[in-house]
Design a protein that fits this description.
Belongs to the peptidase S41A family. One of its GO terms (molecular function) is endopeptidase activity. It comes from Candidatus Nomurabacteria bacterium GW2011_GWA2_40_9. By secondary structure, this protein is of the alpha+beta class. It folds into two domains: about 1-45 and about 75-200, Pdz3 Domain, CATH 2.30.42.10; about 210-340 and about 360-400, Alpha-Beta Complex (2-enoyl-CoA Hydratase, Chain A, domain 1). It contains twelve helices and 21 strands. The protein has helices at about 1-5, 55-70, 80-90, 105-115, 140-145, 165-175, 230-240, 260-265, 315-325, 370-375, 385-390, 395-405; strands at about 20, 40, 100, 120, 120-125, 130-135, 150-155, 160, 180-185, 195-200, 200, 210, 215-220, 245-250, 275-280, 290, 305-310, 330-335, 340-350, 355-365, 380. The strands form five sheets. Strands 2, 3, 15, 16, 19 and 20 form a six-stranded mixed β-sheet that branches. Strand 13, helix 7 (about 230-240) and strand 14 (about 245-250) form a beta-alpha-beta unit. Helix 7 packs parallel to helix 8 and helix 8 (about 260-265) packs parallel to helix 9 (about 315-325).
Length: about 400
């Protein structure tokens, strides 16, 4: 795929790698156990000891050279240069999800968390240095316009995404309700880029749908792990129980994640009390934090359970699906998941700037890092362009086949 990209534009530098949430739903931060939006720490003073190996003279020499040599140096304020230096410091970590937010960016970040914004309703990240769609959310403008998981975004209106910071990409894609943005995208199975015009709107995050099929399969389609998703899942479990069937299909395709505690709560429906759902690994010198099932576990060993995943399944989706796979409670069908398996903490640097920094990685109950490559389904089934055009769903078909021919 990178060979195809090189014919369209040359990648000139390493883009800031972070998870861009246009909808900012599955940012997978320290949004966790108590529904807190983030664990905020305040840095009041610069009292850290800097290693004697760090030579700051080169920094100040560069600063002075800019003042002396750069023709328009006066147009950039000293504070803007400091913000740029901090961003470069964070970039040096070479971490996909650590990022510094200037005052304007921090305000946008807070609006995203609160949900007070309009946009196109998709989550994107950067893979192989290319801005890539993780998943459009159901019934949002991006979804209705035909944006798909895995689409590579080459241009936003007239701006090529090469050398474009992630924060700038957010600003360009978001906008006022009723306005449009044109995305030039390249799809994996295609050789030429296409333009897709999307009309921005207020985003209402879809959460969950249920369906009881004629063949006795109860389907739950979970689109996001929102603040109320655990309660909605509880209602779905009641409907499933009343259906008197033992065939359950959970569709997590295109679900970019969300609240950690929602994933833990949902896993608890299938696991004994105390069973590990997910492990937060902070490295060699800090004790791991283990999130455990609260033990609803109302189902016996006769439950037939299949989970659908794809490249748009990320964060909390991977936590839930990974726990079910490791504990052998469900069979996974579909394609490799995204691989969003790190924990971010939000640190208040000043009253109007913040740092989102990676503090841990998520491991499945068996100790497998989600970040490495995502989850591998037990049954790999592709969903092709031809399938889409012919309105076929081979992944769903395989899941139904497995449920109707249990045990495996």
């Amino acid at each position: 795929m990178l060979d195809k990209i090189s014919g369209y534009f040359k990648i000139n530098r390493h883009l800031t790698i972070t998870l861009l949430v246009i909808l900012f739903f599955g940012f997978g931060v320290y949004v966790g156990a108590n529904n807190d939006l983030a664990k905020i720490s305040r840095i009041n003073s610069l009292d850290a000891t800097v290693s004697s190996e760090a030579d700051f003279s080169s920094f100040w020499k560069t600063w002075n050279a800019i003042n002396e040599k750069y023709p328009n140096a006066s147009e950039v304020t000293n504070q803007e240069r400091v913000y740029g230096a901090i961003s470069g410091l964070v970039d040096s970590l070479n971490d996909p999800y650590s990022v510094f937010f200037t005052p304007e960016e921090a305000k946008s970040f807070e609006e995203d968390i609160a949900g007070n914004f309009s946009g196109v309703g998709m989550e994107v990240g950067i893979k192989d240095k290319i801005l890539t769609v993780i998943a459009p959310l159901k019934d949002t403008p991006a979804y209705k316009a035909g944006i798909k998981s895995g689409d590579l975004i080459l241009k936003i209106d007239d701006t090529i995404t090469t050398d474009l910071s992630i924060e700038k990409a957010i600003k360009l894609i978001r906008g006022e309700k009723g306005t449009t943005v044109t995305l030039t995208i390249l799809r994996e199975e295609e050789t030429e880029p296409r333009e897709i015009k999307v009309t921005r709107d207020i985003i209402n995050v879809p959460t969950l749908d249920t369906e009881f099929r004629n063949d006795g399969v109860f389907v739950i389609r979970l689109y996001s792990f929102s603040a109320n998703s655990a309660n909605l899942f509880r209602d779905a479990m009641k409907k499933f129980s009343k259906s008197k069937t033992d065939k359950l299909l959970l569709d997590l395709r295109g679900n970019p994640g969300g609240y950690l505690d929602s994933a833990v709560d949902m896993a608890s429906w299938f696991l004994d009390n105390g069973k590990t759902v997910i492990i937060e690994d902070y490295g060699a010198n800090i004790k791991q934090k283990i999130y455990r099932s609260t033990g609803y576990n109302i189902f016996n060993d006769q439950l037939k359970f299949v989970i659908l995943i794809d490249g748009g399944s990320a964060s909390a989706s991977e936590i839930l699906a990974g726990a079910m796979q490791d504990h052998k409670k469900a069979v996974l069908v579909g394609e490799q998941s995204y691989g969003k398996g790190s924990v971010q903490e939000v640190v208040e640097i000043t009253e109007d700037t913040i740092l989102k920094v990676t503090v841990a990685k998520w491991l499945t109950p068996n100790g497998v890092s989600i970040s490495e490559k995502g989850l591998t389904p037990d049954y790999k089934v592709e969903y092709t362009k031809k399938d889409f055009e012919e309105k076929k769903d081979p992944q769903m078909d395989k899941a139904i086949e497995l449920l109707n021919n249990w045990p495996q």
